[in-house]
Structures are given as structure tokens and as C-alpha cells.
Amino acid sequence: MTVTNEREVSRDGAELLPIGQVAKMVAVSRRTISRLADAGKLPPPLRIGGSLRWRLADVRQWIAAGCPAVRHISGGASR
After folding, report:
1. What contacts 74, CB < 8 A, 6 or more positions away?
2. CB half-sphere exposure, 66, CA atoms < 13 A
3. What angle do CA 51, 2, 45 make, to 5 degrees?
4. Using CA atoms, how far apart are residues 73 and 39, in angstroms rounded to an integer?
5. Gap between the Cα atoms of 59 and 46, Å rounded
6. How do the pLDDT tens digits run along the chain, 79 residues long?
7. What CA–CA distance (Å, rounded) separates 26 from 3?
8. Residue 42 burial class via C-beta count within 10 angstroms: exposed 0-12, middle 13-18, buried 19 and up
């Protein structure tokens, strides 16, 4: 992974965004992004060390689709 202008690039060449940049793209707070991610309403982030990063392409596609809920929560008991 390399860092370029506050964006990180994964080994596969995907640009990775920290929570603050995702929040700016959606025009909400960082806390709202955390809540949306916890609720499964964002594309799944990558965990790098103790940080979460989102693929730029995934976020753009999610926004273009109208920000639909994306269920990616796995494990736990089913309801």
C-alpha cells in the first residue's frame, strides 16, 4: 500500500479513502459514516491496522446508485 495526497492505494491499484474523505463526498459527518457502516448501509470498508478505508470506486458507485443499503454484515444469529 502506498500513500498519495491523503489517499492510499492498495496493492491491486484501488484508491482507498479514509472516513473523513468519504464523509466529505456524502456531505455528512464522520460519525454518520460510522453509523451507516455499522448498519450495513455503506459498501464494506477494508480494515488496515486499526483504520477503516473504503475503495473510491465502491463509494462512487454507491453514490451513483442513490446510496442504497448494502447488507454486508456477516456472522451472528439471523433474525
Report:
1. none
2. 1
3. 35
4. 8
5. 12
6. 454 455 677 767 689 999 999 999 999 999 999 999 999 999 999 999 999 999 999 999 999 999 998 875 444 444 3
7. 22
8. buried
